[in-house]
## 1
Amino acid sequence: MVAIEAGDDLEALYQTSYHSLLRLAVLLTGDRGAAEDAVQDAFVGFWRRIDGLDDPAAARAYLRAAVVNNSRSVLRRRRTAARHMHELAPGTQPGADESIVMQVRDRELRLAVANLPRRQREVVVLRYWSELSLAEVAETLGVSVGTVKSSASRALDRLQLSLGGSR
Amino acid sequence: MNETIEEQLRRVLAQSATAEVPDALPIPPLRQVDELTVRRRRRLVPVISGIAAAAIITLIATAALLLHTNQPDESVSAARAVTPQLVGLSLVEAEADITAAGLTVGTLTSVESAGTPKGQVIAQQPSGGTVSVKGDLVDLQVSAEATTANASALITVPDLRASTATEATAQLTKLYLVIKVVIVPSTGGKKGHVVRQDPEPNAKVSVGTVVTVTVTDPNFTDVPQGLVGMTYDQAVATLKSVKLTAIPALVDSTQPVNTVVGVKVAVGTSVVQGSPIALQISNNQLFIVPKLANLTSAEAIAKLASLGWTGSASSLKLYTTPTSDRMLVGKIAGESHTVITPKGGGGTVQMPGQAPPPGTPVRKSTSFTIIVYVMK
């Protein structure tokens, strides 16, 4: 049985997963336009493989991996890698009781994530935003769990260092 | 603040993600799924014998992989394609799998194979699992009945015009022909349909011949006619109906405010859906100079004001010329006269009765020069 069929089901999957995939792509590319391309391209690619994916969970995993891959290529295409996450909106404005220190630290962290090497940034976003397990991150990126572990560890060290502390 | 780096990361990433992509962000329509099979590479040689083809393809793939190895790791993975396992599939299924893998259907050879159903793939080159470069050819041997197609039999090319690329692919693969799709922006035909084919319908060709079909790109749209003269809102709606967006630019014009007075793209041009179309929108800052001859300067000011002129008596430069006709005294001259230059000194200059002249489009704040008759 094919659970994801062409047409209505694809549209439903698109509607339910669009925002989440676009957020993933935005965190990886730092560019909304590039992110939108990455998500649309993922669905077009998915359409072509639709017969081979009869499990909605597998469909989501496929789309997630496709968005990660496409984010790399649209970034290359648009040459926007330089303007990465530091251009992202800072998120909700902190209340009066939240300290300026916290705002500054958050800004530094966004910049530090933006300046991570590509794989480390992907691992950080998939692990701490998508909340994937190490095994799922490994599967999404097509690398071993060991590589994910070491990338995550190096990334955290680097982020900690750029915030002026040590882990 | 005892937040760990992990907790801070989760919070900051979540904030950035939802700030950039709020829940209320409208979801754009799913891009028209391009169901066309695009052949990215031209076939190098129409017919290559099995062994030679295998050798050449392997060489090309190896060379390309070696070349890519020297580039950053991400481009290598993007350029790789794993050849799917195709033996035992029908030709149509095999073609779909080849395309899905990012590869290109190569030479099809029809061979007699006892006990194998007609149209089933009995051999492939390269074999399943081979890592190739995207776009590379995968050659197939397809079983044929003893009496049907073999390399020397001729096949009649069907009429593919008005079919979709998918339909054309299905028709041709059934006949052991190879389709190559060329996409053109638009030639006025039905989007996504074949508008030309080569060879022509009813041509007799051999097995494996490439039939090139030209298909109009469903992602292209024609810039609609009649935008000039519409209000901006009407033009935006018209463009939106064909999936285009408007970019307004204000220009000086005599047309009412918000009227489209120009389009930066030639009408009928085909553009990719979603393209911005630059529209020139009137700011109504111009008006056409009326004829002022035979009016008094006060009447002239009133007439100009009624047309939107924003000047006043002080922006009207007045010269005089003598007349013996009592009826003309105080009125603006209809023709050129020699007047005394304003700075004095007795110099004279030939000037028209009014400047700028009637019929000229000018800014509403323009100054006017007029010559008024005085009694000799």
## 2
Amino acid sequence: MLPDRFKGFFGESSGNNPGRRSSAQEEKETQLERQSRGLEQFFFNIRGVEGLSILDLGGAVQENIEFIANLGHRITTQAFLQTLDQAFGQGSITQTDPAQIEAFLAQQLSFPDQTFDGVLLWDTLQYMSPALLAATVEQLHRITRPGCYMLGFFNSDDKGLSSPNMKFRIAKTNTLHLSQRGQRNQAQPFNNRNLERLFVKFDSVKFFLTREHLREVIIRR
Amino acid sequence: MDVKDVKKENILPVSSMPFKTATPESDAKGSGQASIGKAVKINGQIFSKEDLYIDGDVEGTVELHENRLTIGPNGRVQASVRAREVVVLGAIQGNVEASDRIDIRKEAKLVGDIKTARIVIEDGAYFKGSIDIVRQEAQKAGATAAPAHPAAAAPKPVAAGAAVGSSPAVPVEVKR
């Protein structure tokens, strides 16, 4: 019998991928390169060890898969935002129904306890309602091993709750290529205090503030 | 002027047919590889000793150890797949093992775990699952060799907050 994650897979026609954007939107992508201290710290923390299990919530990106695989690790990818849009629609207003939240998490994070040694969250968490976010972080705590590191990005501009929707491609251990695909509404503002509270069950939270209103966060399980 | 001469004069030096870009479907028809059409549904096990093109529905297992499997744009495969090379334009739901490479094209969907030596995923492809890259040296060493990535190995915890080279960034850290 196929696992839960396969359910509903053929529900729509092939080529009509969940959450996929139109080609017109894809054409609007703008590329930029930036240094990332958070990424550097993430790879520093997992250096010298092969065969780790890394979870990437940013979906399947060729560069990231190659980079992680070349370090000798196993990578698991989840198209988290695509599935989020498919499950709740765009926007966080509908992300409050406990049954829907449970179904979404069962589909996305139904891994055995303590499966992963590293998680690339990218900016996925900032688009979730408080209820969904808390449940997601709880699941992340469950599926990560003690000593696991997670890398997350949070927009630190408190003035607006709309932030650029990015695709992150790893170029080097400290460099990312970013492709912007329009704007997306954040579900809530994030500051250091919020984030500390959010990851209270984790061992430590480290922040790197950047000039582009982006807070890079390394969380240690 | 006899008939032969007339025919020669009418022969055009170039084809009036438009150029056709090679597609997996045209390859399938041209090269004589086995093909499952889009109106075909198969439930069971498929073993093939030649390349296979699937554009229909297949449920079960597909094994082509030394050959190439192509899932066409209409193909829907709900099976575990083993082949030398796998090209996905349609949808696969199941684990895929490709000893050489797997190529997931732009409109393709794959949900399952992949084990392969090389992987190409085009932007826009939907993939959900884990990827194990098996190094080719490990493959050549024989089937009895140890797995290339002992994924279950416990991570080696490293002290949080350790300095990274000459990084000028001063992180803010909350330790509990």
